[in-house]
Amino acid sequence: MDPPPQDAIKGALRQLILLGAIEYSDEDTSVEEKYIGRSFRLTDIGKKMAAFPLDPRYSKAILSAVEYGCTEEVITIVSMLSGDAILLTPSSKREEAISSRKHLISSEGDHITYLKIFRAYKQSNNLTEFCMRNFLHQQHMKFAVEVRKQIMELCKRIDIKIQSCGSQ
After folding, report:
1. How far is CA 25 from CA 17, 22, 30, in A?
2. Per-residue confidence (pLDDT) for residue 36, from 0 to 100
3. Does position 91 have pLDDT exceeding 50, yes or no?
4. C-alpha gyration radius of the chain
């Protein structure tokens, strides 16, 4: 097994610093210094982020959502982003696929579109029909539902308040 490239390690450390998950533990905090060979300390937020088996960006988003009162929505969006793509757009039916999803598309961006898709999926009486009609990959939607359930359970276990911002 080969060690990861130095650039990958530097990039990962830089990302964790920017997310507030780690900080330098030595006196010199110059960003110009190399990351490799430096001492780092896990921050309080980093300890909370480590509880999630997710990409650090997603963990930080969930933790940040607490102060905005939208943990339920962010968990849903993270669960939709954690798996493979849910949208099916066959080249032979491209226009039909795009047209079928127009009612689910949000002008506020992809994340809100994913939230709308998830909510509509959960409200559907016939999940298979819903996925076929809207050109969604049903197995990937089921995966997102399961990931969401696991993240919700984890949040409850570590005392993260699950709340919705409603229509805000």
Report:
1. 12, 9, 12
2. 60
3. yes
4. 20
Strands 22-24 and 40-42: antiparallel
CA neighbours closer than 13 Å in the CB half-sphere of residue 68:
15
Residue 32's pLDDT is what?
Answer: 44
Q: Which residue shows structure tokens 């959960």?
A: 122
Distance in angstroms (rounded) separating the CA atoms of residues 106 and 114: 9
pLDDT band at 105 (very low <50, low <70, confident <90, very high): very high
pTM of whole model > 0.85? yes
The token duo for 71 is 């943990």
With CA atoms as reference, report the closest residue to 40 among 14, 6, 7, 60. 14
Report whether 147 contacts 82 (CB < 8 A). yes
